[in-house]
Amino acid sequence: MSTTVDDELWSAIGDPTRRTMIDLLLSDGPGTATSLSRRLPVTRQAVSKHLAVLGRVGLIHAESAGRERHYQVDEAQLARAVAQLSAVGSTWDDRLRRIKRIAEAIERNRHHDEGE
Amino acid sequence: MSTTVDDELWSAIGDPTRRTMIDLLLSDGPGTATSLSRRLPVTRQAVSKHLAVLGRVGLIHAESAGRERHYQVDEAQLARAVAQLSAVGSTWDDRLRRIKRIAEAIERNRHHDEGE
DNA sequence: GTTCTCGCGCAACCTTTCGTTGCATGTCGC
DNA sequence: GCGACATGCAACGAAAGGTTGCGCGAGAAC
């Protein structure tokens, strides 16, 4: 329950290299496997595999231009991913708050009962 | 830049099984490897390894009680993890909004220039 | 139009991670 | 003491992330 997250999307953005790639595509605009690999500590082939993964879950889509393939972020899908991130975050936040409230209540009772 | 996230923490909560484990520990309170494995689709040994990973990054801590080891979530560290989640989320959100604004500006210009 | 270059995709391979099974140990209840 | 149960450790298999090496097709240079 609660984390009925679309695990496909999560695991796509769970990888640090893929997160950085999305960052680069957002900040620098559309890019190719080669252009991305120049700004990352991995080879073009590794980048290419990650692009395939991101494409499979719809986070990016490609456009062929001559011998190059330009990739860019799918805004709607990324928005969905962000929503999932914040959903999990707020779920955990809520639980943490509730636990804290309960702990404080117990603390108050202890002080009251034992006069400590 | 921007995703200068503490990758240790991210990869810890990046795994779907580990996320569910944290959920269970938050909703049901402290638990053991065995009790968690009963509510998960993996074996006790797998759960045990995940607990080790979560413990290594400080997201949980254990307490020995006889032959059992009770694990529970470290609230401060989880709060830190949640903060990182929402940081990445809002970064991407910002970029998406900015892109959208630019796209709209271009659209307006096109209409103005071409009278379309 | 040949040739040279550059971007890409495919295949083989290595290492780490997630998962399994099997076994030996330690503790609780009787 | 003895059976039952929770753990830990080790060996092994499958998948993911990474690498190198190769061949092909499209642009650029001559």
UniProtKB/TrEMBL annotation, chains A, B:
Molecular function terms from GO: DNA-binding transcription factor activity
InterPro entries: ArsR-like_HTH (IPR011991), HTH_ArsR_DNA-bd_dom (IPR001845), WH-like_DNA-bd_sf (IPR036388), WH_DNA-bd_sf (IPR036390)
Domain HTH arsR-type: 1-93
Top-level taxon in the UniProt lineage: Bacteria
SMART domains assigned: HTH_ARSR
Residues passing through the membrane, by range: none
Entry-linked NCBIfam families: HTH_metalloreg
Protein name according to UniProt: Transcriptional regulator
UniProt organism field: Micromonospora arborensis
